[in-house]
Amino acid sequence: MPTDRNIVLFDLFGVIARHQRPGSLDKMAARCHAPTDAFTTAYWACRPPYDAGRQSASEYWTAVLRWLSRPVDPDVIEELRITDIDSWSRVDSRMVAYAQSLRDVAEVAVLSNIPSDHADAFLAAQPWLHRLDHVAFSGKIKAAKPAPAAFQHCVVAMRAAPTDFLFVDDREENVRAAQAIGMNGHVFTGRDELAAVIETWLPTRRPTRK
User: Fold this and answer.
1) pLDDT tens column, 39-56
2) Which stretches in the chain have pLDDT values below 70?
3) Which of 87, 110, 119, 182 sits in a 20 to 30 Å window from 51, CA-based?
4) Are 91 and 17 in contact (CB under 8 A)?
């Protein structure tokens, strides 16, 4: 049953934050003395346990280096870790402002796939996150989208019902997963289109803020 609350639940990267900085994978591949395509394969193939909080940064980068048949050097691992965090550090200031403005008419939360050490760096660099109603990072909650547990975490943590949420993500498979547990969903393509969707969605519901 709905609890008559309006919660806009945002993905981070590709919606409020920008995708990985161009050239970052090339830079990390060069540090490993590996071709970019081989590095990219290893980078993403080894990523799920790291995103979901089942591996530390050291364990993740050890797996990547072993995939590439490269020496496991702690100094190299730390350089890769720092470069990786920096590569995901950019935000879209217009979307940050828009998300914050929504708090006049709705609760606003974030659910993002991001490793625990990345999450710590992002929270330190982006104080606006602390002003939202809830922030859920996969590396902290031990569940990554599109797993149902990631969405259920937000439902339980916010003491809400799935139907109270409008989930916004740029990946269709994540939106479908949210809808499968009963959330409303929107595939993000741009701020103006999202604003129109939210303006249509909110009048059908009881306001949560005055």
Assistant:
1) 999 999 999 999 999 999
2) 1-3, 205-210
3) 182
4) yes
- pLDDT on residue 184: 97
* Phi and psi angles of residue 186, each rounded to the nearest 5 degrees, phi first: -145, 130
CA dist., res. 137 & res. 12, Å (int): 10
Phi and psi torsions of 147, nearest 5°: -60, 135
pTM of the model: 0.93
Lateral strand order in the sheet of 165-169: 134-137, 107-112, 7-10, 165-169, 184-187
Question: Helices (DSSP H) in the chain: which residue ranges?
Answer: 24-31, 36-45, 47-51, 57-67, 74-87, 93-101, 116-125, 138-141, 148-157, 172-180, 191-201
The DSSP bridge partners found for residue 165 are 7
Task: Tell me the pLDDT tens digit for each residue of 97-119.
Answer: 999 999 999 999 999 999 999 99
Name residue 72's amino acid.
V
Q: Which residue, 101, 135, 14, 115, is CA-closest to 55?
A: 115
